[in-house]
Amino acid sequence: MAPSNILWHKSTVDKQHRSAKLGQKPSVIWLTGLSGSGKSTIANLLEKRLYEADHATYLLDGDNVRHGLCGDLGFNDKARVENIRRISEVSKLFVDAGLIALTAFISPFKADRNYCRSLLANGEFVEVFVDTPIEVCEKRDPKGLYQKARSGEIKHFTGIDSAYEAPQSPEIHLHYKDETAQQTTQRLYLALQEKGYVK
Ligand SMILES: Nc1ncnc2c1ncn2[C@@H]1O[C@H](COP(=O)(O)OS(=O)(=O)O)[C@@H](OP(=O)(O)O)[C@H]1O
Ligand SMILES: Nc1ncnc2c1ncn2[C@@H]1O[C@H](COP(=O)(O)OP(=O)(O)O)[C@@H](O)[C@H]1O
């Protein structure tokens, strides 16, 4: 039975109904940071934690977006703006479906992250700054891309010859610590719980 404070709008199933049924507060947990900062790893581990806590989630990252929805886009500024615009619109649909959407994109420009924020209601956009210094990202270099960017094989690489505008006041700031990805994810999970975004 629906909670008594939820009003039924004439045969219209809306976000409130869907999220009440799922028993959660829908949101976009937006991870931003340099390549190699840990966005994908943390987002994956976080989604597992949320799934285990009975949350309904969907993870958007390069694997399911840059091969499909945004498969026509490259990495110059214009393409990145369009990439984040499309991801923002899709995230909004997931929120409307009552889900907790997790996104793991560099999203280097403040205006584009704020565009996503502007599409959502207050409290639905949770910006998480995965603040790993470039020296650490470059040392990790999980895909060998920093090496290619340094040698000039790849152009417009974020942090090398393309800008990254760090968030000034993210909802959650994951300051770098020399720790495992599980430990960093735990810090994020606790911060999300403390701020009331998740159970
Ligand atoms: N030039 C350049 N700059 C940055 N990144 C590059 C580039 N070329 C390819 N890649 C790979 O693409 C991933 C970044 O894609 P995103 O969609 O997250 O980028 S953006 O938000 O549109 O800036 C990024 O993935 P992550 O390392 O997971 O961040 C890279 O693997
Ligand atoms: N505390 C940590 N948090 C996240 N990733 C970490 C951490 N420590 C080491 N790593 C490693 O760093 C790399 C981060 O890569 P990835 O998650 O693809 O980053 P991004 O998605 O930001 O490009 C992975 O190989 C991961 O195992």
Tell me what the structure shows.
- This protein is an alpha/beta fold and 199 residues long.
- The chain has a domain at 23-133 and 166-193: Rossmann fold (3-Layer(aba) Sandwich).
- It contains eight helices and five strands.
- The protein has helices at 15-22, 39-52, 62-69, 77-96, 110-119, 134-140, 145-151, 181-194; strands at residues 27-32, 57-61, 100-104, 125-131, 172-175.
- A five-stranded parallel β-sheet has the order 2-3-1-4-5, sandwiched between helices.
- The relative contact order is 0.20.
- The chain binds 3'-phosphate-adenosine-5'-phosphate sulfate and adenosine-5'-diphosphate.
Q: Within the largest sheet, what's the order of strands? A: 2-3-1-4-5
What is the CATH architecture term of the domain at 23-133 and 166-193? 3-Layer(aba) Sandwich
Q: What is the strand tally?
A: 5
CATH superfamily of the domain at 23-133 and 166-193: P-loop containing nucleotide triphosphate hydrolases
Q: Which CATH first-tier class of the domain at 23-133 and 166-193 would you pick?
A: Alpha Beta
Helix content: 40-55%
Average pLDDT value? 96
Number of helices: 8
CATH topology of the domain at 23-133 and 166-193: Rossmann fold
Strand content: 5-15%
Order of helices and strands: HEHEHHEHEHHEH
